[in-house]
Amino acid sequence: MLVAGNWxxxxxxxxxxxxxxxxxxxxxxxxxxQVAVCPPAVSLDAVFEVLxxxxxxLGAQNMHYEDHGAFTGEISAxxxxxxxxxxxxxxxxxxxxYFGETDVxxxxxxxxxxxxxxxxxxxxxETLAQRDAGEENAVVQTQVEKxxxxxxxxxxxxxxxxxxxxxxxxxxxxxxxxQAQAMHAFIRGLLINMYGEKVGFAMQILYGGSVxxxxxxxxFAQPDxxxxxxxxxxxxxxxxxxxxxxxxxxx
Length: 251
Ligand code: 13P
Fold this sequence. Notes:
By secondary structure, the protein is an alpha/beta fold. It has a single domain (2-250), classed as TIM Barrel (Alpha-Beta Barrel), CATH 3.20.20.70. 45% of the residues lie in helices and 15% in strands. The protein is built from ten helices and eight strands. An eight-stranded parallel barrel has the order 1-2-3-4-5-6-7-8, surrounded by seven helices. Helix 1 (13-27) packs parallel to helix 2 (44-51), helix 1 (13-27) runs parallel beside helix 10 (237-250) and helix 9 packs parallel to helix 10 (237-250). It is globular. The protein starts with a strand and ends with a helix. The structure holds 1,3-dihydroxyacetonephosphate (13P). 1,3-dihydroxyacetonephosphate (13P) binds next to strand 8.
C-alpha cells in the first residue's frame, strides 16, 4: 500500500515545512505502508530536509520531459532528483484539463522520469460525461496504454498507477468502493496484459478522489485498491494520518 498526499497549489514555504513536520509527527514511523507527500515545487527542497530520516518520501506534482534547455518556467527530472524526490505525479486530470497535457506528452514524461529513476504516479480517470456515456473503461484503457507505451517495467515498484475519476476530485463525491474496485480490476487486467502476470499483479494502483478518514477503510479493503492519492485531506496532518492508519489496518 502507498498513501500519497497531493498538496496541489497549496501552502507556502513556511506552512509546507510545518505541514511536513506534522505529517512526520503523525506517520513518520509507520511501517508496512509507504507514505509520500507532494508539495509545490518551491518547497520540495525545504520539505525534503524535514522528511530526511523518516519513512515519508518526497514527490513532485509535475515535470517537463526534456533534460534541460530553453523551456521557461519548467522543471526537469534531474532537478527533481537533485532535491530528493522519489516520486513524481504525472498526467493528473487538472494538468490534462487546464494545461493541455495529452497522453503523448504524459508518455514522454513517464519515460523521462524512469530514465532519472523517479517513480511516476501516472494518473488516469474519466469525466462524468464519459462515465454517463458508458465510456469509462475505453477512456481509462487509452490513458493507461498510451501513457505507458514503450515503457519497460521489470520491477513492479518502478511505476505507480492512480485511478482518479474526474467527477470525484474535490467534489466530496467519492467513487463507491465497488466502482473503484471494478475500475482497478480493469486496470489490473491491462497491466497484466502489458507486463505479465507477475509484474502486473504486484503493481500499485491507487484510488484518488475525495478520500477522507471516513471512507478510506472501505476503499482500501478492496482487493485491487493498493492505497490512495489524497488531495484536500492531505492538507490536514491528522486527517492524512488517519487515512494512513486505515491503509495500515487494511494491509
Ligand atoms: P481530493 O482528495 O481533494 O478530491 O483530490 C484528489 C486528487 O486529485 C489527488 O491527486
